[in-house]
């Protein structure tokens, strides 16, 4: 009887502890921070995030409507500090970036500026979407 109770207790504790762990993909809360239709006449654009109620520790980029060769992005925080993130990625329509860890950790984001190649002019202008994770 004691062995059965002990096995049951260990099993229940295992289930309870497993239910409190979070998957990096399943439970992540991604918030849309902004979108920008790229202007192929210049080689950079800015998404103004503004001060939000929450901080973010990771970013992800999606590109829709066209292709885009993105070189880098700079994340400006509410306190004025900046992170420069090298991307060097060719986005095809509907693709997304890797999950980008912000060096500064959980911070309020003011702006995201991204640089891309403007020589690949296309009829369909790509739209860049930036998502942040809490």
Describe it for me?
The protein has 134 residues and is mainly beta. The chain has one domain (30-133): Jelly Rolls. It contains one helix and eight strands. The strands form two sheets. The chain has a four-stranded antiparallel β-sheet with strand order 1-8-3-6, with no helix packed on it. A four-stranded antiparallel β-sheet has the order 2-7-4-5, with no helix packed on it. Strand 4 and strand 5 form a beta hairpin. The chain is globular and about 65 Å long. It starts with a helix and ends with a strand. The model is unreliable at 12-25 (pLDDT under 50).
Gist of the model:
With about 130 residues, the protein is mostly beta strands. It has one helix at about 1-20; strands at about 30-35, 45-50, 60-65, 70-75, 80-90, 100, 110-115, 125-134. The chain has a single domain, classed as Jelly Rolls.
Q: Helicity level, as a percent range? A: 10-25%
Overall residue-averaged pLDDT value? 80
Largest sheet: 4 strands, antiparallel
**CATH first level:** Mainly Beta
Radius of gyration equals 21 Å
The tally of helices reads: 1
Name the poorly predicted regions. Answer: 12-25
What sort of overall outline do the alpha carbons produce when their principal axes are compared?
Answer: globular
Our measurement of the CA-to-CA distance between the termini, rounded to an integer number of angstroms, reads 46 Å
The percent range for strand residues is 35-45%
Number of strands: 8
CATH architecture: Sandwich
Number of domains: 1
Widest sheet: strand ordering: 1-8-3-6
Oligomer: single chain
